[in-house]
Amino acid sequence: MSVAFRRESDDEHMEPKFELPLPTGPNWVTARGLRLTREKVQALESVDSGAMEEEAGKKHKRVLRYWRTRLATAELQAAPDGDAVAFGTRVRYRLNGQDKTVAIVGDDEADPHEGRISFSSPLARAMLEAEVGEKVDFAGKAEAVEIVAITVIGED
């Protein structure tokens, strides 16, 4: 029989497991984001992965590698002055006649349901460097977003 038709083992034909993808660009973090990343690494390191099933243990180690990398590459950003929209600010803005508020934070800290968006998101990029009262283009519409208020976020 030809070697081409012989199967050595089932493992040869399994889907490869890849590392968790890292967001592109710098790993900017707020003080809160740095604290949460440290806590995540500590929590993952405290788990005994040796007692897990093989696949669960591999998955746990992949997640731990991701968070260790994120901690090692974290760049704590200085608090902004609050005069303009910047990383580390909370922005109240008006879009389509509705007022909304978001905090501009790092990729791993972002949670849109809690009002935290990544500095690399389209909305944050559109608003960066704008000042109160200024209107900025967004989603292909001229002056779609009006900046209503800017405050510096704390450790919340």
From TrEMBL:
Origin: domain of life: Bacteria
Keywords, in A-Z order: Kinase, Transferase
Database matches in Gene3D superfamilies: Transcription elongation factor, GreA/GreB, C-terminal domain
PANTHER family associated with the record: TRANSCRIPTION ELONGATION FACTOR GREA, TRANSCRIPTION ELONGATION FACTOR GREB
Organism: Sphingobium cupriresistens LL01
Domain called Transcription elongation factor GreA/GreB C-terminal: residue spans: 82-151
Pfam families assigned: GreA_GreB
Tagged with keyword Transferase: yes
Protein name: Nucleoside diphosphate kinase
